[in-house]
Amino acid sequence: MDKLKSVLSGEEARRDDRTVLETVNEASTLGWTTRIKGFVACFVVGGACTLLGVCLLFLPRIGLTLFIVFYTFGNICALGSTMFLMGPLKQLKRMCDKTRALATAIMITCLVLTLCAAFWWKNFGLALLFCILQVLSFAWYSLSYIPCVREAIMRMLAVCMR
After folding, report:
1. Taking burial as the number of CB atoms within 10 A of a residue's CB, which of 21, 52, 73, 111 is the most buried?
2. Under 8 Å between Cβ of 24 and 89
3. What residues in the chain have per-residue pLDDT under 70?
4. pTM for the whole thing?
């Protein structure tokens, strides 16, 4: 019956021109407390995976591989946790803003290259380099949400370089 009402009222025509991201965003009608709980849970899982990866680093033979997997998964969870607060569409739009686009591209590229270096190329030195770049790009991306901090860091670095 709801389907018939939406077709007769013209709402169905408006639904057809929506993108997939808009549909997903509209489907995420979580309450504020549920969003906070989801954010905290996802962030804690990400932090725990990152910490577990660091602890597993010292295992013989498979330690570095486990570190790379858990560390990368932890970063993905930490990044995904913010989607609970803003919603997926708004988060993706903010990730692609001109102030964050480069940091986002570098961060995602480093996430993929870390896994490629570990599993495909079997070059663990390169994988560790990409892990370090993950940290730096994730920090630079995160700092973009705090007004004027990145500019202050750039000025401070410029002063230190003189």
Report:
1. 111
2. yes
3. 1-18, 20-28
4. 0.69
